[in-house]
Amino acid sequence: MADKVRLGLIQLCGCSGCHISLLDLHEQLLDVLPALDIVYAPIVADVKEIPEVDVFCIEGGARNEHDEHLMHEIREKSKVVIAWGTCAVYGGIPGLANLYKTEEINTTPYYTKTTDNPGVIPENGIPKLLDTVKPVTDVIKADYILPGCPPKPALNAAAIVALLNGKDPELPKKIVCDE
Ligand code: SF4
Q: Does the keyword Oxidoreductase apply (predicted)?
């Protein structure tokens, strides 16, 4: 691919582990970084607007309405969207919250035996929680899924190198945490 690939990375309802897993590419990073123009990423640039990109990797699912809004905006502005990591593909650990009602999730941290809270749950300026945590693939079309918690460095590398070469990455159909 002649031009640099414009790449976006975002952390929604995830733990940053997928972003950190990029560093596990070690010296392979030096091979691919020159071909990438990372235009949106929490670890690189504090950019407010979602830019138009070639490839966007979304870590985590949608926990609140803002996450869902961002997913749609990313889909509109990206040629390729990758659901990146088990949380983005299947719900992962944040998806365990779906075992509880939203009201329980809202109130439990504010009313426990170890918290002394005046009973005011903040509301203003905080995005409303969705009824359930939704993986990326439940909200928008993902062109590729890259599962793993976090994805194996080999999978990250396979995806990046293939996309740099204008090819389809060969990714496993099913994988959660291990190969
Ligand atoms: Fe963190 Fe694992 Fe989810 Fe990635 S898939 S955001 S490493 S919990």
A: yes
Question: What is the atom index within ligand 1 of the atom nearest the CA of 18?
Answer: 4
User: Does a structural domain hold residue 170?
Assistant: no
Task: Give the span between the Cα atoms of 90 and 138, in whole angstroms.
Answer: 9
Looking at residue 68, which CATH number applies to its domain? Answer: 3.40.50.700
User: By residue range, what is the domain housing residue 66?
Assistant: 5-164
The total domain count for the chain is 1
Ligand 1 first shell, C-beta below 6 A: 14-15, 17-18, 59-60, 85-87, 92-93, 149-150
Backbone region of residue 16 per phi and psi (left: phi > 0; alpha: psi in -120 to 50; beta: other values): left
Tell me whether residue 179 is in a domain.
Answer: no
Phi, psi for 8 (deg, rounded to 5) = -120, 140
What is the tens place of the pLDDT at every residue in 12-57? 999 999 999 988 888 888 888 888 999 999 877 678 899 999 999 9
Q: Is the dihedral of CA 145, 147, 153, 158 positive or negative?
A: negative
In this prediction the pTM is: 0.88
